[in-house]
Specification:
Helix 3 crosses helix 4. The strands form three sheets. The chain has a six-stranded mixed β-sheet with strand order 2-1-3-4-6-5, sandwiched between helices. The chain folds into three domains: 148 residues, no CATH class; 115 residues, Rossmann fold; 194 residues, no CATH class. It is 49% helix and 11% strand. The chain is built from 15 helices and eleven strands. Strand 1, helix 6 and strand 2 form a beta-alpha-beta unit. By secondary structure, it is an alpha/beta fold.
Length: 489
């Protein structure tokens, strides 16, 4: 692979994006946690769990313990060791986001960093004259740190590669320019899945013979929505005015914009330089991502779903018995739904209709009471007696807490639509798929009886545009009385 090089006066300036800083911070915190846990494991094996427990009691009340000063020394040296490891790993450039390294190279870099830190700690202990520190403990910690710090990086890399390969979690990328640089970048992103990018196609008016060219630069808005694009990469050669138009249109569509690799006069000269693997890149625009808010939302989802499944399990058993006694067929209904960025997932519900309800759907389409790509009829003849009650109190939706726990859904978000409804989407409807679908949402608590799909869309987009954690909490609080009053259908 040929690497690109540049020689501009600003080329040495590097920068980490806000999202990259959070990833970097996560790496550092993970390393600190692993080093402390490894020390705890080694201490436990060497001195016993009681001695380890007393390590955590380092106030004046424990000063009369015979081992207190030894324990305090171990903690002090452990703090030094953690600091040395972090600096050594930083010196190996292992905290840089978006670098391209093989598993072996990354593991060797971890080995070199931890080995150096362990050697420096050993020298420091020797020069300090402290005789109570066990060299065996230091060496054991070093070996365990090499194994765990390398292993968790390999695990994280494998997770990213699997998610990108399955189109479930990578950053979707559209490349402007299908020339030599664009082709090389596309092949590079496709081959290096650990970078976390999914190449969706080119926009270029001069390479129409390439099946990966999805249109001209004028088609950016349409293609980016259809392909659920997150970032636009601009490559040479692109005319300055075209690049300006692309950047403005990308901002309008809330897309990140990066330039590869040469700047034009007036464009990117003040932009900090990063590296995506071997490729230099200038970030022209970044769409802000509420990282902390999304993390908190996911934390709430996991906690609430886990607690809900545990507390509601007796109710689930009663519902299961009622369904089996009422009509033949399975207790649960599984159907493919369209989730974030058009990904398909198996949505779980209590069965509220006859077992062959899907086969009868086409026969009833003429009775549809909703406009647009939504199928809904009151007094649906496919509903069972138990299903009518389940629908009225929205009890059929409760198994979707499992989908929330898995990450396919959230507690709050636009409702996921079936594949046949999704097939009727217009281009502008795809925006509702920018976020994770939810069990309840703004439409459910404000206009549930409104038959207009356009009203549903407006509310979904209002939720997406104005999302914050407090909005989720308000929707959940409004959902609770709606469930108890039986306003479902």
């Amino acid at each position: 692979m040929r690497t690109l090089s540049i020689s501009h006066p600003w080329a040495a300036r590097t920068h980490t994006t806000p999202n990259g800083r959070w990833v970097r911070t996560g790496f550092i915190l993970a390393d600190v946690v692993f080093v402390w846990l490894n020390a705890a494991i080694v201490y436990s094996f060497r001195y016993g769990p009681e001695w380890l427990a007393s390590l955590l009691w380092l106030d004046g009340t424990s000063a009369d313990m015979p081992a207190f000063h030894v324990q305090k020394t171990y903690v002090a040296f452990l703090l030094v060791y953690v600091t040395l490891i972090l600096f050594a790993i930083e010196s190996q450039d292992l905290y840089r986001v978006g670098q391209a390294r093989t598993r072996l190279d990354e593991s060797l870099a971890v080995t070199k960093a931890v080995g150096l830190a362990t050697l420096l700690l050993t020298v420091f202990i020797y020069l300090s004259g402290v005789k109570s520190m066990s060299r065996l403990v230091v060496v054991s910690c070093g070996l365990l740190n090499i194994a765990t710090l390398a292993a968790w990086r390999i695990w994280r890399r494998d997770v990213i590669e699997r998610r990108v390969a399955s189109n479930n979690g990578g950053r979707n990328v559209l490349i402007i320019g299908a020339g030599e640089v664009g082709q090389e970048l596309a092949n590079y992103l496709t081959a290096r899945k650990e970078l976390g990018f999914v190449f969706k196609g080119f926009l270029d008016g001069n390479h129409s013979g390439d099946p990966r060219v999805l249109g001209h630069t004028e088609d950016l808005s349409r293609v980016s929505r259809a392909q659920f694009v997150d970032e636009v990469f601009i490559t040479n050669p692109v005319e300055q005015e075209v690049m300006r138009t692309v950047a403005i249109e990308a901002r309008r569509n809330r897309l990140d914009v990066k330039l590869f690799p040469e700047p034009y006069p007036g464009f990117g000269l003040h932009g900090p330089l990063e590296y995506l693997g071997d490729f230099p890149v200038i970030e022209l625009h970044r769409q802000p991502i509420p990282t902390l808010g999304l993390f908190a939302k996911r934390l709430v989802d996991i906690s609430a779903a886990a607690v809900g499944l545990a507390l509601l399990s007796p109710l689930f058993a009663v519902i299961a018995v009622a369904i089996k006694l009422d009509s033949p067929g399975p207790v649960f209904y599984r159907a493919i739904r369209i989730g974030k960025k058009g990904r398909k997932f198996s949505c779980l519900k209590f069965r509220s209709m006859v077992a062959d309800a899907d086969a009868k759907k086409d026969q009833l389409r003429h009775l549809n009471e909703r406009s647009g790509p939504i199928f809904k009829i009151s007094n649906d003849p496919r509903l069972t007696r138990a299903g009518t009650i389940l629908r009225k109190f929205s009890l059929d939706e409760f198994p979707q807490l499992w989908n929330v726990l898995k990450g396919d859904m959230s507690l709050v978000g636009p409702r996921p639509h079936p594949t046949d409804d999704f097939a009727q989407y217009q281009l502008e409807h795809l925006r509702r798929l920018e976020v994770t679908p939810g069990i309840t949402g703004l439409w459910q608590v404000t206009a549930r009886r409104d038959p207009s799909f356009e009203k549903s869309m407006r509310l979904d987009l209002e939720y997406i545009e104005n999302w914050n954690l407090w909005l989720d909490i308000r929707i959940l609080l409004k959902t609770i009385p709606a469930v108890f009053t039986g306003s479902g259908d």
